[in-house]
User: Fold this.
Amino acid sequence: MSQKISSSRSKNPQEIEALTKLAVMAAAYFDWEEAAKINQKILKISENSVETLNRLAKAYISLGETQKAQKYYKKALGLDPYNVIAKRNLEKITKANGDIKSKNSNENAAKPQVNLSTLFLFEPGKTKIISLLNLAPPQILAAVSCGDEVSLNPKKHSVTVASSDGTYLGALPDDLAHKLISYIDGGNKYETYVMCTTTKMLSIFIKEVYKSEKFVNQPSFANSQGQYLYDS
Assistant:
């Protein structure tokens, strides 16, 4: 069987890469059923792909099928016992299940989950999706999740992005950074959230939440649908 997998990988690297991009894109636009189908297709080619197992588990979590998610996270850990993403999310599922049980006896025991489809609503000129550059190490990226709020930190010539505890995650491309520096200095305010993450890439959703009178006729972003970039 291992020889068959190895052969499949050597014959289909481009197919796997193309399907992976489609799977990530489907997840970015919350088409979790499609994301699950594509990741299942990748597993038929490369059944021991830990990253694919993690993406598939994430899709099932988003579809509310936590038992299936647990199954694939456990399989990922069976292949890579030290995989941070699988371990962390399996712990989250276990804790969430415990919170639900606790809530039955104590209504204040668990907090409601964020509705991601509402959080990531596009508004013309006010929102943008962008992939970060100069990323933090994989172990740091593995510690953030879709929907986590992060901060924009404008500097003299750049804008970095940090997690809620101040940990550096990555930086905006220079053209966007220079534009946002002027808007932030002029009084605009923005909220930023993790939209999609792996140990090799991190895309964020930036949303204008306050427009200064100085920029009343200037949209923050020319592309209302944002921009989704794949890192090689």
In short: The two ends are 30 Å apart (CA to CA). The beta strands are 127-131, 149-154, 159-162, 168-171, 189-197, 202-210. The longest strand covers residues 189-197. The chain has two domains: 2-105, 116-215.
